[in-house]
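User: For documentation purposes, I need each entry recorded in a consistent format: the amino acid sequence on its own, followed directly by the corresponding structure tokens. There are two entries in this batch. Please keep commentary to a minimum and don't merge the entries.

Assistant: Recorded as requested. Entry 1:
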Amino acid sequence: MPVAATDSYGTTVNVVTWFLLVATLITVIIRTATKWFLALKTNYEGDAVILFASMFAIGQSIAIFFGVSNGLGQHAEHLTASQKLGFQKSYYAAVLLYIPCVCMSKLAVLLLLRNITPNKSHQRIAYTTAVFTLVWAGIAEVVLAFQCKVPDTWAILRGDCINL
């Protein structure tokens, strides 16, 4: 049985994750409510992208909470084999949810820029940047999904992964 680590940062990780998740949800709720109830014109595609980004953020936060319950924030030598396994899987899930969350957030900003500019060249730049963002997200997701050898692509502590 490993000795309990006195220098665990798990509680700090949980508090910061909860704080940022609540701040994200409050911001999204206020933004959505303001647009739907006060604005004359709504942008459903931008709202949908923001809501998808929020869902990915919620999923990533849940994965981080599972990671903390499995040893995230503690030194690896203080973890049991089952905790290491659970940590690796939750970390893998959190990393895979990070890229779509960031991608959707960037797309929301690009949609906003496209919608507020009357200049057609600026709209084309926003569209082109959105395409590059989607390509980046696709490539990054595949690289992160297969950063370690198959079949245990989540086993980051094994030492045979791409050093990202």
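Entry 2:
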Amino acid sequence: MDTPSPQPDLNRNRLPTLFEVLSRQTLAPVDLFSFYIYMRDQQRSVDYLDFWLDVSQHMSLCRHYVRELRRSVLVETPDLEKTGSKRSSYVLDHMGEVNDPSGPSANLSADERIKDQNLSAYLRQDNGTSNHSPQSSLDSNQSRLRGSGDRYRGNGERPPRPSFMSRNSPTRTDSNSPAHTVARADIRASAEKILYTYLLPGSEREITLPQGIVQDITASIEEEGRDDPEVFDTAKDYTFQAMERDAFPGFLRSKALGNLVPPSAFLRLVIGLVGMFGAFWAGFACILLDEPKHIRCWLILPFTIGVYSLSSQQYSIDPVLALAGLSEYTFMNWSHIKEPYIRKLMNRRALMVLLFTVLIGVCLIVLFIFVPGHRL
């Protein structure tokens, strides 16, 4: 059966944690999609998030393989449960539902940790000896092309990964269908793909990890022939903690306290400076030319534009768009604010910025309209 998608917590009255974002328990603008865009465009370290997601998918692939393996064994030998031999089914019986762990292993409960350890132990024991996966007679390339969305294609290309580019969870295929199978070679290919893409020196998307961690993973995969999820546990925990420490606070400041991306903020800075320059130039000109007050009232327009734009840039929030429930995820692309607590927080901050803008604008307008003129 399909694994149910994680449900967002609509009653959360606080900022979300990184664990909740990666677990897809949040809504825009603090969802996994927005975090991926932030890591790509602003933090410039999306490879760390991609590594973490690929390791999580590797775990899902391993669990899917064991589940299908047990199912196929029970179909072929329906009397297995009545016998004393339960080698292939024991692990799955103690695994429970297939859930992608979205945090460091230290956050897992004792029961979940035991299940993961059992899974890794089974895969280490099964490595090189299991040849009875479902539909094992199929060609391996065909199996990879027709397998679940969590696996890589046989030609080495990475398929689209909707898990982090949309709020929906990864597509779960019905493992009852014989067309959707996971071969033992797929798990090995997944582990090697992670190693050769992110960890080896000079790799395509190399991430910076302690040398000891990289050496341990390399030795486990290339020398010991391991491909179980425990191989990547230390690197995954290190990556999670690095994102939590270095990237996530900036993400919350950007998305929970503001609704503008840096290019938009810079554009407002330019508009604000031009508007203020024009307003001051016209204001002093009206004073020195002793223009009447009904002419000086036109100063309201440049002062309002200038003060509003500079305030928006300073606080990284456009108050009018924030009150309309909009947040920018890329330049001039807007999404609705769906996270309830973020919406309330954004409304309060927008009202504060709007009040500040009105106060400064009124002071400047009154000063330049009512100050006595003196024609030179």
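Summary note for entry 2:
Residues 84 and 375 are 106 Å apart (CA to CA).
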